[in-house]
TrEMBL record, chain B:
Chief site of localization: membrane
Organism expressing this protein natively: Symphalangus syndactylus (Siamang)
Protein's name in the database: ATP synthase subunit a
Cell division found in the keyword field: no
NCBIfam families reported in the protein's UniProt record: ATP_synt_6_or_A
Pfam family membership, one: ATP-synt_A
Record key words, sorted: ATP synthesis, CF(0), Hydrogen ion transport, Ion transport, Membrane, Mitochondrion, Transmembrane, Transmembrane helix, Transport
High-level lineage: Eukaryota, Metazoa, Chordata, Craniata, Vertebrata
Reaction(s) catalysed (UniProt annotation): H(+)(in) = H(+)(out)
Oligomeric and partner information: Component of the ATP synthase complex composed at least of ATP5F1A/subunit alpha, ATP5F1B/subunit beta, ATP5MC1/subunit c (homooctomer), MT-ATP6/subunit a, MT-ATP8/subunit 8, ATP5ME/subunit e, ATP5MF/subunit f, ATP5MG/subunit g, ATP5MK/subunit k, ATP5MJ/subunit j, ATP5F1C/subunit gamma, ATP5F1D/subunit delta, ATP5F1E/subunit epsilon, ATP5PF/subunit F6, ATP5PB/subunit b, ATP5PD/subunit d, ATP5PO/subunit OSCP.
PROSITE patterns recorded: ATPASE_A
One of the record's GO cellular component terms: proton-transporting ATP synthase complex
Transmembrane intervals: 6-31, 67-86, 137-158
Topology in membrane: Multi-pass membrane protein
Localization, UniProt: Membrane; Mitochondrion inner membrane; Mitochondrion membrane
Length: 116, 166
């Protein structure tokens, strides 16, 4: 007879979609629980990529690449305006474009320059 | 083009909360500790670099002076790693903030001056007057040396800030 593993003890990849909310609720969200989760993930990564005999540069490179992505996402709202565009409007980042009338404007009376 | 020249040095925020603290703590993840004598390549390389700088700095000091080595080496490692990580694109360098550099400079400077005044008062005060000074210049020179002593932490902080910002 197959033993049924409780949801709490399952790993994330073994949890079914239906069980996901109940699995999340069983997790420990106290400060010590969150700190423990960071520590476990740090040592899992460290023992897999860095603390090995044939270590390569990829272990540190992946961390630095994630750090660059994270640093790019932080000021994204300001960086959005510095993207390369085909057309630039002066002050396009600050104010919306003013609506232009679709009909031609009436001709204005020319100023009489002799009247001085 | 940025709105102003210093927009890229603004302190980062995540949903309005300051993100400077996790960024300052990030270099500690790149320096693992070990309880073994023989370690992997990363730890061995880092230990070799630390011992190289330690030997350069601490051979000239006596036993009492070498009690400062832990603080100085950790300061060197912190500044070196944060500045090197700042070379990555889009990353934030904490040492561009004058507040952070002043927070490092003032306590260390005050600690050295206070220790010197407490343990070797006469020698510390004698440093305020260089040897071979003409007699009429003595009062002015003491004032100048005192001012230069108090400007030292500002100079330390501003030097690092300006160099890293550039």
């Amino acid at each position: 007879m197959a033993s049924v593993i409780p949801v709490k003890d399952k790993k994330l990849l073994e949890v079914k979609w239906v069980e996901l909310p109940s699995w999340i609720l069983t997790r420990d969200f106290s400060p010590s629980g969150i700190f423990g989760a960071f520590r476990r993930s740090y040592y899992r990564y460290y023992n897999k990529y860095i603390n090995v005999k044939k270590r390569s540069i990829s272990g540190v490179t992946m961390v630095l690449a994630c750090y660059v992505l994270f640093s790019y996402c932080l000021p994204y709202k300001q960086l959005k305006h510095e993207r390369l565009c085909k057309y630039y409007l002066r002050g396009h980042a600050r104010r919306p474009p003013t609506p232009r009338p679709s009909w031609p404007e009436p001709l204005r009376e020319e100023h009489n320059l002799d009247r001085c | 083009m940025n709105e102003n020249l210093f927009a890229s040095f603004a302190a980062p925020t995540i949903l309005g909360l300051p993100a400077a603290v996790p960024i300052i703590l990030f270099p500690s993840l790149l320096i693992p500790t070990s309880k073994y004598l023989i370690n992997n390549r990363l730890i061995t390389t880092q230990q070799w670099l630390i011992q190289l700088t330690l030997k350069q700095m601490m051979t000239l000091h006596n036993t009492k002076g070498r009690t400062w080595s832990l603080m100085l080496i950790s300061l060197i490692i912190f500044i070196a790693t944060t500045n090197l990580l700042g070379l990555l694109p889009h990353s934030f360098t904490p040492t561009t903030q004058l507040s952070m550099n002043l927070a490092m400079a003032i306590p260390l400077w005050a600690g050295t001056v206070a220790t010197g005044l407490r343990l070797k008062t006469k020698n510390t005060l004698a440093h305020l007057l260089p040897q071979g000074t003409p007699t009429p210049l003595i009062p002015m020179l003491i004032i100048i040396e005192t001012i230069s002593l108090f400007i030292q932490p500002m100079a330390l902080a501003v030097r690092l800030t300006a160099n890293i910002t550039a």
